């Protein structure tokens, strides 16, 4: 694997997204498409990201480690640090553009697009090979428990692990 | 929103600015103890920087956070840099960034290493079989939380705007899922078409909206 194209793949995903999981669809498309990562790598990395402290989005570091070891983790870290640095440039010009309609429109368009792209990724994850009706029940249960109860995500995933022991 | 005065200070007094090493130490604690992702970390930062030490006013906190929502990538990284730079210059920005990421990244890598070392163990395989679909379920929660404030805003601007928003989401899903276009291309197209959403043609609200209060800004970040 070429470290530079590995890094650029991660950087591109982060540069054209917002939030901790916004880079997931682009990484998923590129890394699965080039056979660098498997669906399982993604599921595992996201699960690890849920139980680590700090901001959302550190799951990318777990993904980097899973597919390319320690160098992968470091390159992934660098790729998520660089794009937010743009805030320094923005802080300099923002006061001039903050009230323009078009600026708010661009941001809303982007936010809606991220929903569309995460939707596709979530769909690909639940329809991945190896996931049958038992998996769909677990996906639905984890959605329900996370969305409608105050149960911590960590416990939801732990319950899913116990369910895995019992059902598979 | 009223200015939160640091309790230990009298009116008008400004607390002494911290050095970069002190900031590094405090942000190590913030980054290392905030389980629960974005919202938990955000609240911890507010308590440490604004309420407890009075280094940042509520207005600065809100203004910085708004800016951070406009840049790509992880907003909290941008937030840490802005706060650190304000308090102790470039060294401060570096200190807050390193503080927030060093412990949390180290823990992430150690967890992943542990994970790799037991991944061929049969019972762990079975557990994973349950955990992976559960992460997909979580992703639908993320979608729900990301979508709710956006569609609420759309709805407040009339059904045409709501319809247009739905078209945005659907066409991006079609571009990526069915046409297999690169994800970044679909995002750029949506950003370019974005001003339609706030144009007079699709919005019944004629005046510019005031910036949202911090609770709404925070809930948009509430991914999980």
Keywords:
heterodimer, A: 168 residues, B: 224 residues, 9 helices, disordered N terminus
SSE layout:
The complex is a heterodimer of chains A (168) and B (224).
Chain A: H1 3-15, H2 24-33, H3 39-51, H4 59-81, H5 86-97, H6 101-126, H7 133-148, H8 153-167
Helix pairs in contact in A: 1-2, 1-4, 2-6, 3-4, 7-8
Chain B: H1 20-33, H2 37-52, H3 58-68, H4 75-117, H5 122-155, H6 159-177, H7 183-193, H8 195-198, H9 214-220
Helix pairs in contact in B: 1-2, 1-4, 3-4, 5-6, 6-7
A few lines on this structure:
The complex is a heterodimer of chains A (168) and B (224). Chain A is built from 8 helices and no strands. By secondary structure, chain A is an all-alpha fold.
Describe this protein's structure.
Chain A is mostly helical. Helices cover 76% and strands 0% of the residues of chain A. Chain A has 8 helices and no strands. In chain A, helix 1 (3-15) runs antiparallel to helix 2 (24-33) and helix 3 (39-51) packs across helix 4 (59-81). Chain A is globular, with a radius of gyration of 18 Å. Chain B is built from 9 helices and no strands. The two termini of chain B are 27 Å apart. Mean pLDDT of chain B is 81; it is low at 1-5 and 213-224. Classes of the chains: A mainly alpha (168), B mainly alpha (224). At the A-B interface, helix 1, helix 2, helix 3, helix 4 and helix 5 of A face helix 1, helix 2, helix 4, helix 5 and helix 6 of B.
Mean pLDDT of chain A: 89
Question: What would the average pLDDT of chain B be, to the nearest integer?
Answer: 81
The best one-word shape of chain A is: globular
Radius of gyration of chain B, whole Å: 21 Å
Oligomer: heterodimer
| Unreliably modeled segments of chain B | 1-5, 213-224
| Main sheet properties of chain B | none
Rg calculated over all Cα atoms of chain A: 18 Å
Helix percentage range of chain A: over 70%
Q: Please, how many helices of chain A?
A: 8
> SS-based structural class of chain A?
mainly alpha
| Structure classification of chain B | mainly alpha
Spans of chain A with pLDDT under 50 lasting ≥5 residues?
A: none
Return the string of H and E elements of chain B. HHHHHHHHH
**What is the N-to-C order of secondary-structure elements of chain A (H for helix, E for strand)?**
HHHHHHHH
């Amino acid at each position: 694997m070429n470290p530079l194209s590995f890094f650029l793949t991660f950087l591109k995903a982060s540069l054209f997204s917002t939030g901790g999981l916004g880079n997931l669809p682009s990484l998923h498309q590129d890394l699965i498409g080039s056979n660098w990562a498997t669906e399982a790598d993604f599921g595992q990395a996201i699960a690890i990201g849920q139980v680590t402290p700090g901001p959302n989005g550190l799951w990318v570091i777990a993904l980097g480690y899973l597919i390319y070891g320690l160098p992968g983790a470091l390159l992934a870290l660098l790729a998520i640090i660089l794009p937010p640095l743009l805030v320094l440039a923005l802080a300099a010009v923002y006061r001039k553009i903050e009230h323009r309609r078009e600026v708010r429109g661009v941001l809303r368009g982007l936010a809606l697009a991220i929903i569309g792209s995460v939707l596709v990724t979530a769909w690909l994850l639940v329809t991945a090979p190896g996931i049958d009706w038992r998996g769909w029940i677990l996906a639905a249960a984890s959605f329900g428990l996370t969305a409608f109860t105050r149960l911590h995500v960590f416990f939801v995933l732990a319950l899913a692990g116990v369910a895995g022991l019992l059902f598979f | 929103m009223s200015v939160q005065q640091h309790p230990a200070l009298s009116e008008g007094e400004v607390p002494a600015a911290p050095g970069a090493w002190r900031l590094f130490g405090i942000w190590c604690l913030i980054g290392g103890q905030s389980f629960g992702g974005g919202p938990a970390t955000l609240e911890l930062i507010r308590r440490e920087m604004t309420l407890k030490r009075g280094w940042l006013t509520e207005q600065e906190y809100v203004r910085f956070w708004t800016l951070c929502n406009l840049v790509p990538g992880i907003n909290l990284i941008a937030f840490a840099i802005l706060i650190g730079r304000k308090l102790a210059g470039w060294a401060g920005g570096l200190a807050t960034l390193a503080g927030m990421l060093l412990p949390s990244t180290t823990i992430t890598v150690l967890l992943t290493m542990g994970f790799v070392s037991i991944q061929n163990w049969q019972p762990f395989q079975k557990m994973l079989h349950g955990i992976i679909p559960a992460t997909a379920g979580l992703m639908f929660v993320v979608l729900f939380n990301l979508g709710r404030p956006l569609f609420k805003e759309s709805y407040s601007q009339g059904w045409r705007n709501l319809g247009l928003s739905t078209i945005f989401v659907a066409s991006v899903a079609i571009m990526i899922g069915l046409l297999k276009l690169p994800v970044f291309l679909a995002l750029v197209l949506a950003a370019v078409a974005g001003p339609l959403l706030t144009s007079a043609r699709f919005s019944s609200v004629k005046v510019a909206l005031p910036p949202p209060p911090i609770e709404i800004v925070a809930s948009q970040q509430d991914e999980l």
